[in-house]
Amino acid sequence: MNESGHLLRRAAEHAISYRESVADAAVGATETAAALATAFGGPLPVRPTDPAAVLEELVAAARGGLVATTGPRFFGFVVGGALPAATAAEMLAAAWDQNAFNGVLAPAAIAAETAAGGWLKELLGLPASASTGFVTGGQEANTVGLAAARHHVLEQLGWDVERHGLAGAPRVPILAGVERHATIDRSLRLLGFGTEALLAVPAGPDGAIDIGDLRRLLPDGPAIVCLQAGNVNTGACDDLRAACELVHERGGWVHVDGAFGLWAAASPATRHLVDGIELADSWACDGHKWLNVPYDSGFAFCSRPQVHAAAVSYTASYLVGSGTTAAAADFTLESSRRARGFAVWAALRELGRDGVAELIERCCRLARRFAEGLDAAGFEVVNDVVLNQVLVGFGDDARTERVIEAIQRDGTCWMGATTWRGRRLMRISVSGAATTESDVDLSVDAIRRLAAAA
Ligand SMILES: *Cc1c(COP(=O)(O)O)cnc(C)c1O
């Protein structure tokens, strides 16, 4: 084996020992940011370093600064782990170094995306004719979906936004729930609409929009409505069927932000939460959250492939109406691109339809186990646990903050804080494929012990 072979083998060994010990390690980082800055810092090296030495330096510097999100007891934000086959595929994707720009440059990468895209649409209950862009995550997927919406809605108003821009364009009403994800606002900003263009639709106590309010606020004619499948705090989903029917009756476009919640469609136990999902016009979903694919991995789906390409492709002018087949790069905001399809394909092969459904059901069941355990311990579970998200209060805001800090310092498990309806709360997200019942029980015990001391 040559030097580079030994190096890759050594990297694999490091990866193996990390994964084999991650379940027992402290979940949060154990080094301070300052210590990590020192470990990685120093002057720019003048001379080359032996690659084998670089690898050992990297491993030594990162140790203590790695957060065990692939382990079984990380419940912060909405963060999935990384399935074995998906991780291995990602390692190969790095070694193969394919540029998934198009099928000439990376035929295998595009074939994997095409196959995986079809499987994803089937699992998520989306139209088979929809286009799929393999993007960086929910943020890019929201930007792409809203760019398609912008193209379509303005075209209906007789305005070519790709040619003329937004200056002087007809005003487009944009509506989204008050509890929308912050990435929607950033996408609207980047697309030139500005956040002021957004009309917030009031939400009920669970964070899902009130359809009566949407009916009252939505004007007749072309408009963009952002719905949500899976609120980051409560897991609640908007009534997609009622909202899509209403918006389409009035001539608007529906974009669904379903970064993690769209996966409810993949299990018979939760499918009802996203009933009507197929009626929307564009969808944003993540692979790196609930599907447990390594970062970064997201999907931008659009019911009208030509609109999708016209909005974000740089070959759009000759694509539209010309019958030219769209390429992978026509559906994302990137030009050169990592081959994200390999890991997604591997994850879906590893799990199969039943495995995906089981993963979704298991996470929901474990979220309910958290809620029951913490409720039995006398803490306040604030939300109705419909999916994989649990909100917990430990009394006033200050005490809740103290408990969360103690949990993060302790290292048994990791939960973050959120503000929900004006209160500071602990948020639990069960999105990792590695979590078991005993991980939940161990975590509930730790929370009980730490809360008693706080
Ligand atoms: C996570 C999330 C996003 C953003 O997704 P990224 O993958 O972090 O870019 C958008 N919307 C919702 C509802 C999310 O949960």
From TrEMBL:
Protein name: Glutamate/tyrosine decarboxylase-like PLP-dependent enzyme
Family statement: Belongs to the group II decarboxylase family.
UniProt cofactor(s): pyridoxal 5'-phosphate
PTM-bearing positions, type N6-(pyridoxal phosphate)lysine: K289
Organism: Allocatelliglobosispora scoriae
Species lineage: Bacteria, Bacillati, Actinomycetota, Actinomycetes, Micromonosporales
Entry keywords, A to Z: Decarboxylase, Lyase, Pyridoxal phosphate
Recorded superkingdom: Bacteria
GO MF terms held by the record: aromatic-L-amino-acid decarboxylase activity; pyridoxal phosphate binding
GO biological process: carboxylic acid metabolic process
